[in-house]
Design brief:
Length: about 130
């Protein structure tokens, strides 16, 4: 079953490079626990063959410009991440998602600050009310 997961592994269009790499690493670790190992070269070739159409040109460029036998997994993932960031900046859907996430984060931070301010105020009042009773 694990070898089959490796063979049919594909990167989904909506998946980030980090999500893909986490999923890929999980499959590799499962296979290692079953005694099946792959060389770095084999793993890199599999990832390059699995790239979605939006990153397929990267596979060609990496294959032509780098010696796949000496490139490291970190270098490959870093290169793909950088390209995905550039593509997401040009993609209006990703821009919308990033704006939404940015607004959501700001809202959550405001809520947390309000909660913290409220707790500080309650502590201040509790402390002050004890002092005024004395």
């Amino acid at each position: 079953m694990g070898v089959r997961k490796f063979k049919i592994f594909l990167i989904e269009d909506s998946e980030t490079i980090d999500e893909m790499y986490a999923r890929f690493t999980t499959i590799i670790n499962e296979l290692r626990s079953l005694g099946k190992t792959y060389t770095t070269h084999e793993k890199i070739k599999k990832i390059l063959r699995s790239l979605p159409s939006t990153l397929r040109h990267m596979a060609t460029a990496i294959t032509q410009s780098k010696d796949l036998k000496i490139i490291g997994m970190d270098e490959l993932i870093g290169t793909l991440r950088a390209r995905q960031v550039l593509l997401s900046e040009d993609n209006p859907i990703m821009k919308g998602k990033m704006k939404f996430l940015s607004r959501l984060l700001k809202f959550i931070m405001r809520q947390l600050m309000n909660m913290k301010s409220w707790r500080v105020f309650k502590m201040y009042m509790k402390h002050h009310s004890k002092r005024s009773l004395c």
